[in-house]
Specification:
There is one protein chain. This protein has helices at residues 17-28, 40-49, 64-78, 101-129, 141-144, 150-170, and strands at 8-12, 32-37, 55-58, 83-86, 132-137, 175-180. By secondary structure, it is of the alpha/beta class. The protein has a single domain (8-180), classed as Rossmann fold. A 6-stranded parallel beta sheet has the order 3-2-1-4-5-6, sandwiched between helices. The chain is globular and about 50 Å long. It starts with 7 loop residues before the first strand and ends with a strand.
């Protein structure tokens, strides 16, 4: 990301793991952050530890209404969103034959649908700003697969196709979309 001081960045899944590491780096670079997680207390702790001027919000990314409310609250408190990082994800490892349908749906809703919903909300804001950048956190298993992670792998592979297509949709609006696949 090419960063400027005071840019507003929303980090979904920013309270722990990769999202938290990204938040720490962006805070050092002078970004104004919204740390968004399902658990508000954990998000608040992370935001506090980053210093003053950051926002902590609770959001279930699989709920379109919660995502919309979260973006409205960020806009009110921090201003228009310049950067979006999607690091929210769940992983329920298990062989497909032993995986409950509810667990499949939960992973698809959080990892794939959730990213689609946050991107949709962010793109609306970024078009008005005439630009922005989105980074979706995928996984190496989305590219290579892994035994016992077929559902998780599918959601992360889906992010690749989604991000590539969205990048083509919004490139003319000066919005960059990328996937990072750690592992």
């Amino acid at each position: 990301l090419f960063l400027k001081m005071g840019k507003v960045c929303a980090i979904f899944g920013g309270s722990r793991g990769i999202g938290k590491a990204v938040a720490e780096l962006l805070a050092q670079k002078g970004c104004c952050l919204a740390i968004i997680a399902r658990n508000l207390e954990v998000a608040q702790t992370t935001a506090r530890n980053l210093g003053a001027g950051h926002l902590a919000l609770s959001c279930d990314v699989s709920s379109e209404q919660e995502v919309q409310n979260t973006f409205e609250e960020m806009q009110r408190n921090l201003g228009p969103i310049n950067y979006l990082v999607n690091a929210a994800g769940i992983n329920r490892d298990g062989l497909l034959l032993r995986t409950k349908t509810e667990d499949m749906i939960a992973q698809i809703h959080t990892n794939l649908l959730g990213t689609m919903l946050t991107c949709k909300a962010a793109v609306k804001s970024m078009i008005q700003q005439q630009g922005g950048a989105i980074v979706n956190i995928g996984s190496i298993v989305g590219l290579k697969g892994n035994s016992g992670q077929s559902v998780y792998s599918a959601t992360k592979a889906g992010l690749v196709g989604f991000s590539r297509s969205l990048a083509k949709e919004v490139a003319k609006k000066q919005i960059r979309v990328n996937v990072v696949a750690p592992g």
